[in-house]
Amino acid sequence: TNDGITDFADLLIVAERWLLQGYHPFYKARGTDFTRDTLINLEDFSCLAGEWLNKKPVKDPVAHWTFDEDWLDTSGRYPGTPLGGALISRSFSRVGSGAAYFDGLDDAVIIEGYKGVSGQNDRTVCFWMNSTDINQGLIGWGSYEDYAKWVITTFDEGNLIVRVQQGNVVGSSTLNDGLWHHIAVVLDVDGAEANTGDIQIYVDGLGISTDGMASPVDTDAYYNVSIGWFEGENYYRGFMDDLRIYDVALNPKQIADIYYANE
User: Fold this and answer.
1) Across-strand partners of 132?
2) What's the Cα-to-Cα distance from 194 to each of 20, 125, 132, rounded to whole Å?
């Protein structure tokens, strides 16, 4: 139910999709496939039971850049290539001993060979940011085909916008105040096809109200993940810290836990 509480209602949903998966294939990987093996089975029920008892840990991110010492992610699989003068600041960070700094002119970090989470798959992107500017690219991947882009930027009033090419989701919170803010953007597909109505934005551990233009979501595996900029967007001026990409939709409690662990 994505209400932050695991209870009997969630058990009913898993049971229903377990019974229906042979007739409705899209149920196989939509929110109840905890093990991500494209099947709903006893292992998923076991995961649900563990979460019900508050013993199921949050799944590790696919990629996690701490920006403490360099541009490597914690798995070692997705090193970043800095462009312009992008640098690691060790004098101004939010988590750990360092943070990425971008000058808004030509700085970016490209993750060569990593195309992000593609298609209509669930995902979560979260990070800390600190900036005073507007209309700047934060992180993105995909392509410029219809519905195929996944780009997170700041918008006209310093708020956040998620662009998917022909559609978007706009957050209500102003972020360009020179303070550290924790951002989480979640795609939690609830139905046969992903759309912008499945996107939720969180700021400082809380879900915020959103508006925008409705469209499907079907992200291409085309451009590499770009941090601090994306093709066609302005460069970002500000700091970023503790960037994570998950291939699952974190629930509100899990996002709040990440925020408060570093608050």
Assistant:
1) none
2) 19, 16, 33
